[in-house]
Amino acid sequence: MAKQKRPSIYLNPPIERVQSELREGQSLSARLGQICERYVLVCRDVPELSDDERLLLANILSGSYVEPLLIRHLDAEVEDSDVASREELDALAGKIRDMTIAERVALVESLGV
């Protein structure tokens, strides 16, 4: 069996923040594992959208860097788009506006963007 290479990880600012907040004796890998397990829980509850709405949102986000600020203002991103009729965009933006941040994250993750 071939020896597996250990993954390397870049300590970007969000991971550095997690590292700086570790409790005494807590390892970074254990803490990141906890965070990932909780993230999986969040992403299980994907808000329901029709196939057309999911496709519309995927088209809007296509090629975008989906950072936390975009997720927070996802409804405005939809409203500002021009890839569908005003009525379709307003209806989708309204649904997204009613979602929690966790639901928006789950929705974006379900699209794979």
Verbal overview:
This protein has helices at residues 13-20, 28-44, 51-61, 68-72, 74-79, 86-97, 101-111. 10% of the residues are buried. It has seven helices and no strands. The chain is mainly α.
Radius of gyration: 18 Å
What string, H for helix and E for strand, traces the elements in order?
HHHHHHH
Distance between the termini: 35 Å
The helix/strand class is mainly alpha
Strand content: under 5%
Principal-axes shape call: elongated
Instruction: Give the helix level as a range of percent.
Output: 55-70%
In DSSP terms, counting alpha (H) and pi (I) runs of 4 or more, how many helices? 7
**Number of beta strands:** 0
Oligomer: single chain
Mean pLDDT: 95
The stretches of 5 or more residues where confidence is low (pLDDT under 50) are none
What's the main sheet like? none
Task: Explain the layout of strands and helices.
Blueprint: H1 13-20, H2 28-44, H3 51-61, H4 68-72, H5 74-79, H6 86-97, H7 101-111
